[in-house]
Design brief:
This is Putative gamma-glutamylcyclotransferase. By secondary structure, this protein is an alpha+beta fold. 30% of the residues lie in helices and 27% in strands.
Length: 166
């Protein structure tokens, strides 16, 4: 694998990282690696309830030096396709939030149904002109990525439990 896999580590709530979960998000719009059952199973130990969804005005952009995408505004009026995770527990939200790159912003987006969902938005920089491809990722990176997710899942969970016990 020639592209970097982001270094994920448990991030206690008491660290300098802003608390992206302070707004009590409910449903998560997944447009990248988190829409794959193998990644969800590796991180959460289960596959949450999922429904197809899309977010008009956004695209899942390929990012320089990363195998995962970033959700960015689409000036051409396209729509990012993905899945809505509808039954995440508080602990699962915390695991996924610790897993996500610190650069992402957790914000609400309007979905094609008119409902709103929470999504990790890429703030800019390193955005390539082409969209990220789930099929390309599945073929070239999924096995190694899911294995890495499984290795770090225990660390993420342990780190979150330590920080909540303090």
């Amino acid at each position: 694998m020639t592209q970097m896999l982001n270094q994920h580590a448990a991030v206690p709530e008491t660290s300098g990282r802003r608390d992206r979960l302070s707004q009590c998000p409910d449903v998560l719009f997944c447009y990248g690696t988190l829409q794959l059952p193998e990644v969800l199973e590796a991180l959460l130990g289960r596959i949450p309830a999922r429904t197809p969804a899309s977010a008009p005005g956004w695209r899942a952009a390929a990012l320089e030096g990363r195998v995962y995408p970033g959700l960015v505004a689409d000036a051409l009026g396209g729509a990012a396709t993905g899945l809505l995770l509808t039954d995440l527990s508080t602990e699962e939200w915390r695991i996924l939030d610790a897993f996500e790159d610190d650069r992402y912003e957790l914000r609400q987006v309007t979905l094609s149904t008119g409902d709103r969902g929470w999504a990790y938005i890429w703030p800019g920089g390193d955005v390539l002109p082409h969209d990220w491809s789930v099929e390309d990722f599945r073929t070239r990176h999924l096995d190694a990525y899911a294995a890495r997710c499984a290795r770090i899942a225990a660390e993420l969970t342990a780190g979150l439990r330590r920080s909540s016990a303090q």
